């Protein structure tokens, strides 16, 4: 899975703003993309909520994303927000 790390200086993105930027990045060079999984580490919420997906203490939402055709992991500000797109 390709990893992209984004850092924003001088402005604090919220979850929805970061998701919109991530979608633009994911669409670059692709006709179609789907958000497979995500994590708002600041609030401690993620999707999907699949506990049985955990492998070796790796977050379940990240394992799910990788195993469901996730091709791109886009992270903002040291994993404050993370989005995995197919």
Provide structural commentary.
With 86 residues, the protein is an alpha+beta fold. It has one domain: 2-Layer Sandwich (Dna Ligase, domain 1). It has 2 helices and 5 strands; from the N terminus they run E-H-E-E-H-E-E. It has a 5-stranded mixed beta sheet, sandwiched between helices.
Offer a concise description of the structure.
It contains 2 helices and 5 strands, in the order βαββαββ. The chain is of the alpha+beta class and 86 residues long. The radius of gyration is 12 Å and the shape is globular.
Principal-axis shape equals globular
Number of domains: 1
**N/C terminus separation:** 10 Å
Q: Which value, in Å, is the CA radius of gyration?
A: 12 Å
CATH class categorisation: Alpha Beta
Could you tell me the mean pLDDT? 90
For the secondary structure, the number of strands is: 5
H and E string: EHEEHEE
Give me the side-by-side strand order of the main sheet: 1-4-5-2-3
* Low-confidence segments: none
What fraction of the residues are assigned to beta strands by DSSP?
25-35%
Under the CATH scheme, the architecture is: 2-Layer Sandwich
């Amino acid at each position: 899975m390709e990893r992209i790390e984004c850092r924003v200086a001088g402005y604090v993105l919220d979850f929805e703003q970061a998701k919109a930027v991530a979608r633009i990045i994911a669409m670059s060079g692709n006709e179609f993309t789907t958000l497979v999984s995500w994590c708002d580490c600041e609030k401690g919420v993620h999707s999907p909520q699949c506990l049985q997906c955990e492998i070796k203490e790796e977050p379940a939402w990240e394992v799910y994303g990788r195993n469901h055709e996730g091709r791109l992991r886009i992270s903002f500000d040291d994993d404050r927000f993370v989005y995995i797109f197919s």
